[in-house]
Design a protein that fits this description.
This protein has helices at about 30-40, 55-60, 85-95, 140-145, 155-165, 185-205, 235-245, 275-289, and strands spanning about 75, 110-115, 130-135, 170-180, 210-215, 250. It is α/β, with parallel strands linked by helices.
Length: about 290
């Protein structure tokens, strides 16, 4: 059965996630069913409300809509904070990386967190995965604007990441920044980011830090985000160049979720016919679980 317990939402100001209610926790077996369907060249529409015991049975409930591409990488991110559902996420990671199951290497499984607390990173200290942190800004007042639910300073959150990385064998970590025109895409923010991540590198031997720069995806809506705009690619490249000049490896990630309002935690709900069908399938699954 889905978890009916209400949870405080952890969200980014520019994300669609805070605009929608928390409906359920995804269980460990659910992404496995989706991946299993793909691995066997099957097609899958929606399977929810299952547990590990019934995962095999759920495999028989395939509704063909569109084929899935081969799975080579898995990222836990989007509409939900992994640290809020850590037990299930850890279970899924274990299944994904076990040799007798999906046998993905740890470097191909990533958990992306907004880090609601310094302890959020530690939830995955023993998990075979890379860690990613949705930072967006390192100056406290600016990050508070972009991530209004944050209750800790960036120095406190960074220390939580440092302590966790020191205990991990895989010390690759990604720092994610959604660049917004005129908000956090200036050379000043690039300099601050470089100084911020350099402290992590200094304190964690063997740490491999990658800065992912993601041009903002305009999802519409009102409030603070109504003034947010996608920066020009020239601004993005200048930001990247500045980081690299300061010794920080940075890459610009393509906004592959633009068409579906799904880039960088901006997964939005639209009332298309296809998604209405998905909702009906989820409701049916709830009744049968």
């Amino acid at each position: 059965m889905p978890n009916k317990k209400a949870k405080a939402r952890v969200g980014q100001q520019f994300a669609s996630v805070p605009k929608s209610a928390v409906v359920r926790d995804v269980r460990s077996a659910q992404p496995m069913v989706r991946l299993s369907a793909n691995a066997s060249n099957e097609q899958l529409f929606s399977v929810d409300g299952i547990d590990a015991i019934t995962a095999a049975t759920a495999m028989t409930r395939r509704v063909a809509v569109a084929p899935l591409p081969p799975i080579t990488n898995v990222v836990f991110m989007g509409m939900g904070e992994p640290a809020d559902n850590a037990d299930s996420v850890r279970g899924a990671i274990n299944i994904l990386t076990r040799n007798e199951l999906f046998h993905l290497s740890a470097s191909r499984v990533t958990v992306s967190t907004v880090a609601p607390t310094p302890e959020a990173f530690h939830e995955f200290v023993d998990s075979r995965c890379a860690l990613a942190w949705s930072v967006h800004a390192v100056r406290d007042e600016l990050r508070k604007l972009l991530v209004p639910t944050t209750k800790y300073t960036m120095a406190q959150l960074r220390q939580g990441l440092i302590e966790t990385l020191k205990k991990r064998s895989l010390r690759t970590t990604m720092i994610e920044v959604a660049l917004i025109d005129g908000v956090n895409d200036s050379i000043r923010e690039a300099d601050e980011l470089a100084d911020f991540v350099s402290e992590i590198a200094r304190k964690v031997p063997g740490c491999n830090i990658i800065c992912n720069l993601i041009p903002y995806n305009d999802i519409g809506g009102g409030g603070t985000t109504s003034s947010f705009r996608k920066p020009s690619m020239e601004r993005v490249w200048e930001f990247q160049k500045r980081l690299q000049e300061l010794g920080v490896y940075a890459k610009v990630r393509g906004t592959r979720g633009d068409d579906e309002s799904a880039a960088c935690g901006q997964l939005a709900t639209s009332r298309s016919r296809k998604q209405k069908m998905s909702l009906r399938h989820m409701q049916m699954d709830d009744q049968m679980s």
